[in-house]
Amino acid sequence: MERPSLEFNLPDTHEEGKLYVVDSLNNLNKLNVCPAESQRSLDEEENTGGTGESMAGSNTRNQCLFFITFILTLIISLALVSFVIFLIFQTRNEVDQISSRLLSEKKNIEELKKLNNIILKHLNQSRIKE
């Protein structure tokens, strides 16, 4: 594959056309030579005249985004913690209900055992008498 040459045969144009072509070539050269972030900072510097106005606005914007992200993270964390606490209370209530059922069933089983023993004794006594 052949690489296109950077030499251009420019036809005779007006002075403005030449300046436009040179400016376009300079921009193309910046894109090829500079990484994206440094190109952005160069463009910002050209736009603000190098006074740093854009950096102050960008810094304020970054702080605002950080603050909003921090607040959202805190809200989400609070919601998750509240949900976990709710689940803990619900689980505790369920366990209490189950344990009370087990205690009542245990009492019922003990009563049934007593009745069974009484019936067995009665049957044994009735067999002996016969």
Automatic annotation (TrEMBL):
UniProt xrefs under Pfam families: DUF4577
InterPro entries in alphabetical order: DUF4577
Region (Disordered) location: 37-58
Residue stretches spanning the membrane: 64-89
Keywords: Membrane, Transmembrane, Transmembrane helix
Name of the protein in its database record: LSME1 protein
Organism: Rhadina sibilatrix
Phylogenetic placement of the source organism: Eukaryota, Metazoa, Chordata, Craniata, Vertebrata
Gene name per UniProt: Lsmem1
